[in-house]
Design a protein that fits this description.
There is one protein chain. A hairpin with a 4-residue loop joins strand 1 and strand 2. An 8-stranded mixed beta sheet has the order 1-2-4-3-5-6-7-8, sandwiched between helices. The relative contact order is 0.12. By secondary structure, it is α/β, with parallel strands linked by helices. It has 9 helices and 8 strands. The longest helix is centred in the middle third of the chain and has 16 residues. Helix content is 33%, strand content 19%.
């Protein structure tokens, strides 16, 4: 496996962006002559490009599913195109980053071979980017998505920053000054999905999951119900756990099983021998 740590200057963000990139073991085989399927994997609030490597078993996922995994460091801005046009994080992810990595590495440019996934804030960014740039991404895997977008949730935001720094002022900086417009704006994945349908554009294959003990299960259920009402086929699952890595790690694999049909067959273990009769367990 190759583990690359890259920094490149983004013209869209006007700053240098760190990336972690993983390639499976046969990346260097000149006989392979292949274009890799790629997963653009987004971290959560307060995170960085190392999270999925250090905490989320990205190396095992890359090897087991024969995937190139690209993990950028984002701002705490939900990976959206800001209303004021000063932080176009979605344009960076779905245009500039995809283009840069395809020029850097032999990656497939096919929509069905290009996936996006993430947790919490990155789950939101997955939904927004997959539905806004559906011509780029064929699959989206959104885990514990931070869908704090409805009127009641927005009104409940504190006026002063809480322990995570979240407050009404922070939301206005990310999503626009008038938060009352947010539930029906194109920054909401539900609205982005409605616009895709109206335009007759391709709908990405979506896998959405949340822990049964995670308070975010309620807005995730609501989004799933809205997608179903539109006739948009998708997978929605809930499972044991809350907002934690012990939930995200197995459910990233569940999402990849759905998108790719499961991991590639493992090579035989060269150390395997049958146990001798009567040997100790």
């Amino acid at each position: 496996m190759a583990w690359m740590q890259v920094e490149f200057y983004s013209n869209i963000l006007q700053r240098t962006v760190p990336l972690q990139i993983l390639l499976p073991a046969d990346y260097a085989d000149p006989k392979a002559n292949k274009k890799w399927k790629t997963l653009y994997l987004l971290h959560g609030f307060f995170g960085n490009c190392s999270d999925w490597v250090l905490l989320g078993d990205a190396q095992g996922v890359s090897s087991d599913y024969d995937l190139c995994i690209v993990m950028p460091s984002g701002n705490n801005d939900f990976y959206v195109n800001a209303p004021y046009g000063v932080r176009n994080s979605a344009k960076f992810i779905s245009e500039e980053l995809v283009d840069f990595t395809r020029r850097l590495l032999p990656l497939s440019d096919k929509r069905e071979d290009t996936l996006i996934g993430g947790l919490s804030m990155g789950g939101f960014g997955t939904l927004y980017n997959a539905l806004t740039y559906s011509e780029v991404f064929g699959h989206g895997i959104a885990l514990s998505s931070a869908l704090v977008l409805e009127k009641e949730s927005l009104e409940a935001l504190p006026d002063e920053p809480n322990f995570m720094g979240v407050c009404k002022g922070y939301y206005r900086e990310v999503f626009g000054e008038d938060l009352a417009l947010l539930p029906d704006s194109d920054l909401h994945p539900r609205v982005a999905a409605e616009r895709l349908l109206a335009a007759g554009k391709p709908i990405p294959d979506l896998y959405i999951a949340c822990g049964v003990n995670d308070m975010l299960k309620y807005p995730n259920r609501k989004l799933s119900q809205a997608l179903s009402a539109m006739g948009i086929a998708h997978i929605y699952e809930e499972g044991p756990g809350t907002h934690e890595w012990s939930f995200w790690k197995p459910y990233l694999r569940k999402g990849l099983d759905h998108a790719l049909g499961g991991p590639i067959p493992a090579d035989p273990n060269p150390f395997w021998v049958d146990a001798e009769e009567g040997s100790a367990e």
